[in-house]
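To whoever is on call:

I kicked off a structure prediction for a single chain this morning and the downstream step that reads the tokens threw a length-mismatch warning. I double-checked the sequence; it's 292 residues and nothing unusual in it as far as I can see. Pasting both halves so you can look.
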Amino acid sequence: MKLLTTAIAPLAWGSTYVVTTQLLPADRPLLAGTLRALPAGLLLLMFVRKLPRGWWWGRAAVLGLLNIGAFFPLLFLAAYRLPGGVAAVLGSVQPLIVLGLTFALTAAKPRLVSVAAGVVGVAGVALVVLKPGAGLDPLGVAAGLAGAAAMATGTVLTQRWGRPPGVGVLTMTAWQLTAGGLLIAPVALAVEGLPPALSGTNVLGYAYLATVNTAVAYWLWFRGLAQLPAGSAVFLGLLSPLAAVVLGWAVLGQALSPVQVAGFAVALGATVAGATAGAGQSIFRSRRSLAT
């Protein structure tokens, strides 16, 4: 049940492409990142009515930067500069980065099935989203890999640091979304200028991104990171590009080739294998505890 509820988050994130292309104004990725994160964070902050204390001001800022403030702009930059789903493939390496970072920080050796699932998952996503002749823009590739690394690092630190006593997952989500949104906002203003006049359709799209796609999805995601064995939840991130493809087929009428269907099955199998590695135990063989 924990895996299923956590999986709602990447499935919701998979709708970002359809919403962005169909409901939002064009060429405003930083505005989209700001309005996706900041209203959601402030809304949750008003609800929980609790601010960080002590060193958690710094930790909340770091997690907000990695999971939101850096990840959102890098994700949009990669998507704008990389055709043919290359950005989705780069993002799908996140489970492998999590395994490597966790091993580097804790000497916890990943299970072979976890490493294999990560590699197979990337291959499956590639079959689903890559098209012949897909270009490799160097800046786009760097942004895609940096975004995956930022989110992976945030995932590892989220599980490593936990939460301060008496602070719930919803509060931690509010802190991170607010911090990330505040970091993106001045960059968006400097790079893209003042927001354009918004239509009712634009407002609906931004409202969806801020609520279901961000506030609810990130709360479920961070709750899953707190409850599931180390690293298991990150494999669910493979569901995001798969959900995007399904929505493209269902909403936009985009056809699926036999190769894409086969890749979908491969990636889905890798997701299940990686997320359930060790029959619900940690996907790592051992862990050396370090001071937090």
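Update from on-call: the warning came from a stale cache, not from the record. Cleared it. Sanity check on the structure: The CA atoms of residues 58 and 196 lie 34 Å apart.
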